[in-house]
Amino acid sequence: MQIDDINTRTSLCKHYNMKQVCVGGQSWHTRVQIDGRCMIRLTDIILRYEAGAGRPGGVTVPRDRRAGQEAVTVLNGISLEVPQGGFRWLLGPSGAGKSSLLRLLHLAVRPSAGSLEVLGLDITRARREQLPRLRQRIGMVFQDFRLLPHLSAYDNVALPQRLAGRPEAELRAEVTELLRWVGLSGKGDVSPAALSGGEQQRIAIARAVINRPDLLLADEPTGNLDDAQAQKLMRLLTELNEMGTTVIVATHNEHLVAERPAHVLRLEEGRKVADG
Amino acid sequence: MCCGWRRDGRWPMAEPRRPDELGLGQALGERFLSLLVAAMVLLAALALAGALAAGALSRHWQDSTQRQITVQVPQPDAKLPPKGGVEETRIDRVLAQLRNTEGVARAQTLSADALAGLLRPWLGEAAPGSLPLPGVIQVDLGLPPPDLDALAGVLEAAAPGTLTERHDLWEGRLRALASSLEACAWLVLLLVLAVAASVVMVATRAELAARREQVEIVHGLGAEDGMIAGRFAQRALRLAGLGGVLGTVAALPVLAALAGLARPFAREAETGSLVPVALWFLLPLLPVLAGGIGWLTAQITVRRWLRLLP
Questions:
Q1: In this structure, what DSSP letter does residue A13 have?
Q2: Rounded to a whole number, what is the distance in Å from the CA of A125 to chain B's nearest CA?
């Protein structure tokens, strides 16, 4: 165990209000009781993008497809379950539907058919007003970071807490702690544009975990990182998972998968071809 | 609210600030929206003034025509057979009859000069004395007014040929004219307000299109529709309210100039001013109304747009 790992875990413990002193990773308390409950359940999910609908929030369908006005099926008959505290690698070639599956789990789109249950809520039947609260329990790390460029790094990290109505006075210590956790202490007042790709990715990670999410989704989180940064990021995701957060990571990077063996979901052309 | 980065790319952390999640403080076109709303409010102020003035004029005409009649006495200076031993002219007898009638507040003979003045537009400077003119009595009625049909009969009996001219016909025409003007002005006011709402809606949609990614990110992080719509609505309230103030201030000299132009008519109509007093109380409400329209329009526009998100 390296010093920075210990520091990292200590910071995480503080963030998650762990009662036991964490040293050397030997005595982790999980933040939530892992009881094997199903965190995610998909049954015969079909996701189809209607071409040319021009709806905000919808995936932009390539122009040549729009011209034909054909619906595009990106997920076809997906069924799977992920238990609480589970870790899943989501693999597959480009266009296999990995990002669409993550968008579905992040409640950015609703399924065209099938049944979707996330954090105990049946999304296919849920009222729209129920979804914001649920989204606050889901952390998402995007490949392109999706930071708000007009906000400082500090405000980007604090944003989920502000949206959840957390008093401003309680924010500073926690955000500062998380910035230190991702190795960016002292850069809280910097614009994302002034940060490197790796630093922006770490801001995005801090933003994704500040609400202590029950479910953490990551879409190619190491795509913009060098090997060392990618390793560090994976350690962070692993630690979050060990503390009880369910984690799903979509990646092309087979080396990462080899270094952190876990349950693998493999998609090809919108269909699940492996689960185990 | 801070609205830009410092040159060194750092936020002024020491300054208390409220986060602007959607970056609306950096939006372009703020001045454009305020100026458009200012123009709308200027037009609304003019329409409002027109509506109130037309209404006041209508009421004035209605009151004055209902309160006045004109009596024409042919051969006014001809002597009538003595009545009760007193010899009098035809016009004196009609005048006496009028003054003894209950419900008549005032009866006054138009002087020869006043009559000549009324005829001058038609006769020019030709001496009216060369024409056989009737005597004209202007009668102000009190409340309650007398039975005008009965009064006409009494006057006719007092001096045969006397004509009592009621203003009913003119009253109807003037009231219709003034009411039409008033209705047109209110319609213009409604149209202006609708256009102002449309301007805010188009601006809000343009802003939504420009900030779509930010809105989707914030929505994805768990923001509720009310929070996002509230941010846009607050901005629309501020910009439309500012436009309202500018438009109202710009309307003041225009209204003052119009009031100056209309002063002769106002004097004739004995109203003092054609700009009703109520306008000066309603004008300050226009910026509030503009801000309210901006806030409500932005709320509706953004919430409808957000309904398209899951």
A1: H
A2: 12
Minimal CA separation from B194 to chain A, in Å: 26
The pLDDT tens digits of the residues spanning A24-63 come to 333 323 344 445 577 899 999 999 987 655 444 444 443 4
In chain A, where the domains are located: 1-30
Probe site for chain B from A49, A59, A163, A185 (most B CB atoms < 10 A): A163
Nearest to A159 among B21, B23, B26 (CB): B21
Q: How many CB atoms lie within 10 A of CB A189?
A: 17
Give me the total of CB pairs closer than 8 Å, taking one residue from chain A and one from chain B.
91
Q: Classify each residue of A61-85 as buried b or exposed e, where b means 16 or more C-beta atoms within 10 Å of its C-beta.
A: beeeeeeeeeebbbbbebeeebebb
pTM: 0.73
Contact assessment for residue A74 and residue A97, using Cβ atoms and an 8 Å cutoff:
yes
Contact call for A56 and B305, based on CB within 8 A: yes
Among B11, B220, B224, whose Cβ lies nearest the Cβ of A106? B220
> What is the pLDDT, as a whole number, of residue B28?
53
Contact B10 A151 (CB under 8 A): no
Question: Measured at the alpha carbon of residue B19, what is the angle toward residues B15 and B21, in degrees to the nearest 5?
Answer: 155
User: Is B11 close to A189, i.e. CB distance below 8 A?
Assistant: yes
Question: How close does chain B come to A194, measured CA to CA in Å?
Answer: 7
What pLDDT, on a 0 to 100 scale, did the predictor assign at position B205? Answer: 92
Sheet strands side by side (includes B163-165): B104-109, B135-141, B68-73, B163-165
pLDDT on residue B127: 58
Site of tokens 């509706």: B300
pLDDT tens for B131-157 read: 778 889 988 888 788 888 888 898 888
Question: In the 8-state DSSP scheme, what is residue B83?
Answer: B
Q: What is the ipTM of this complex?
A: 0.81
Separation of alpha carbons A179 and A177, rounded Å? 5
B168-220 pLDDT, tens digit per residue, is 667 778 778 888 888 998 999 999 999 999 999 999 999 898 889 999 999 99
Residues A117-132: tens digit of each pLDDT: 999 899 988 999 999 9
The total of other beta-carbon atoms located within 10 Å of residue B121's CB is 7
